[in-house]
Amino acid sequence: MDFKEVIQSRRSVRKFRAEEIEEEDLREILEAARLAPSANNLQPWKFVVVKSDKKKRLIAQAAGGQEFVGEAPVIIVACATGRGGFIGGYMESWPVDVAISITHLLLAAWDRGLGTCWVGDFDEDKVKEICEIPPEVRVVALIPVGYPVKVPQEVPRRPLEKIMSKDVFSD
Question: Does a structural domain hold residue 168?
Answer without folding.
Answer: no
